[in-house]
């Protein structure tokens, strides 16, 4: 099943709390859509899609929108973090 192949993408969407999500299969292609909070979250979803399906997968179509384009991502600094560590992460 195509949905099982991309289960890690669906799990990531749940973990990131993607809004307005929808997933369905049509003619052997998994179609997903939703709204990520930031471009960073959209990018990590696409990275996971490429990890599973390759650089140009033909068995999945994703329409991921972004609700806040004003920043790349919002990060709350935690004790022990450095600017260098945060910068490497993003």
Describe the fold and architecture.
This protein has 90 residues and is α+β, with helices and mostly antiparallel strands. It has a single domain (2-89), classed as Beta Polymerase, domain 2, CATH 3.30.460. Helix content is 39%, strand content 26%. It has four helices and three strands. It has helices at residues 2-5, 7-15, 39-53, 83-89, and strands at 19-26, 29-36, 60-66. The chain has a three-stranded mixed beta sheet with strand order 1-2-3, with helices on one face. Helix 3 (39-53) links the parallel strand 2 and strand 3. 12% of the residues are buried.
Low-pLDDT sequence parts: none
Order of helices and strands: HHEEHEH
Q: Which CATH architecture would you pick?
A: 2-Layer Sandwich
CATH topology: Beta Polymerase, domain 2
Average pLDDT rating:
94
> How much strand content do the residues show?
25-35%
Structural class: alpha+beta
Largest sheet: 3 strands, mixed
